[in-house]
Design goal:
Blueprint: E1 20-22, E2 28-30, H1 32-53, E3 58-60, E4 64-67, E5 70-73, H2 75-85, H3 90-106, H4 110-114, H5 117-134, H6 147-162, H7 172-182, H8 188-200, H9 205-210, H10 212-221, E6 226-231, H11 239-243, H12 258-264, E7 268-271, H13 281-285, E8 291-295
Antiparallel strand pairs: 1-2, 3-4, 4-5, 6-7, 6-8
Helix pairs in contact: 1-7, 2-6, 5-8, 6-10, 7-8
This protein binds iron/sulfur cluster (2 copies).
One iron/sulfur cluster binds next to helix 11.
Length: 301
């Protein structure tokens, strides 16, 4: 993408162009989107190699894994397990503690953008969806994103009342992760159904309105050290809003807050919304370099 010379909106950028950015001097470098894709593919390659050639580096799947001997367990699976059985084994407590510490450092919902394999599929679906919308072939349906919290509660209630991890039957993240590592099963049909819903019905609908895995990580986001930082170079062009599927978290980029900021001498602000997945798409497209990653604990290092 040549963000300094073009407005890199979803509509006017080709999908493949978004894997590279171009500096003001004309040099190409990998965008955050590329870095995320490399990490997600790398994680699953390690899972795959651990299973097939016993590499023992990263074993298991995203539901529960062991990285260099450290246990890691998906927090939502752990909560479901607890409400379904009233029992949490010691390995699970170690696993969930490790995960919470890691994500408090690197941003809770960064899991969605930097780890989840369905996220990759969903980004392709998002591009197709936006293309169909821009050609007036379909409409984008928007809902209140807070509905995710209701789904989160309903899935826990189902586990509590049935004694089973009900959501795991529908969990596209686990289904896809297991399919990549251990091979396809008929459950992959559900992933295709969800993908098609995102392409034809509503942009990133699963991630935005349903997935309780992402919702759990967003709760960890609240106290996380890594955030997107905005600065007053911003010219309020709204390109970042266009590429962000959770654009409500970028409210602070609007011009209407400038008077108040100027009055209080505020030059930088953090994106604090818990729905931000730290995907870096907004940084990739911001032609004023008004957004960047900032580690809030850097003063302590
Ligand atoms: S942060 Fe950057 S992309 Fe977003 S409105 Fe401001 S100048 Fe535009
Ligand atoms: S604010 Fe930026 S980093 Fe956060 S979800 Fe939106 S595009 Fe991604």
């Amino acid at each position: 993408m040549d963000k300094y010379n073009n407005k890199e909106t979803v509509r006017y950028s080709s999908f493949f162009s978004t894997f590279f950015d171009i500096t003001k001097e004309g040099k190409k470098f990998l965008s955050y989107r590329s870095k995320r894709w490399i990490l997600i593919i790398g994680i699953h390659l390690f899972f795959f190699l651990s299973f097939y050639i016993d590499l023992q580096l990263l074993e298991g799947s995203l539901s529960g894994s062991r990285f260099l001997g450290f246990h890691m367990i998906d927090p939502f699976i752990s909560i479901q397990m607890f409400v379904a059985t009233y029992h949490v084994p010691i390995n699970m407590i170690i696993g969930i503690t490790t995960i919470i510490i890691v994500y408090l450092l690197v941003g809770g919902r960064s899991y969605c953008a930097w780890v989840c394999p369905y996220g990759l599929l969903s980004e392709i679906g998002e591009k197709w969806h936006n293309t169909l919308v821009s050609k007036n072939i379909i409409k984008n349906r928007k809902f209140d994103e807070r509905v995710r919290h209701i789904f989160w509660f309903i899935f826990l209630l189902l586990s509590f009342s049935s004694g089973y991890l009900v959501f795991e039957t529908f969990n596209v993240v686990s289904i896809l992760s297991r399919a990549i590592i251990y091979g396809w099963s008929v459950a992959i049909i559900w992933v295709v159904v969800v993908f098609l819903m995102e392409v034809f019905f509503s942009r990133r609908a699963w991630c935005k309105y349903i997935c309780p895995v992402g919702t759990t990580y967003s709760y960890i986001s609240k106290g996380s050290a890594l955030k997107i930082q905005w600065n007053d170079n911003c010219d309020h062009c709204m390109v970042c809003h266009d590429v962000c599927f959770e654009s409500h978290v970028l409210e602070l980029t609007k011009a209407k807050y400038d008077t108040q900021r100027e009055k209080n001498g505020i030059k930088t602000q953090y994106v604090t919304g818990i729905d931000c997945s730290l995907c870096g798409r907004c940084i990739d497209v911001c032609h004023e370099d008004a957004l960047k990653f900032d580690f809030r604990l850097k003063g302590l290092i």
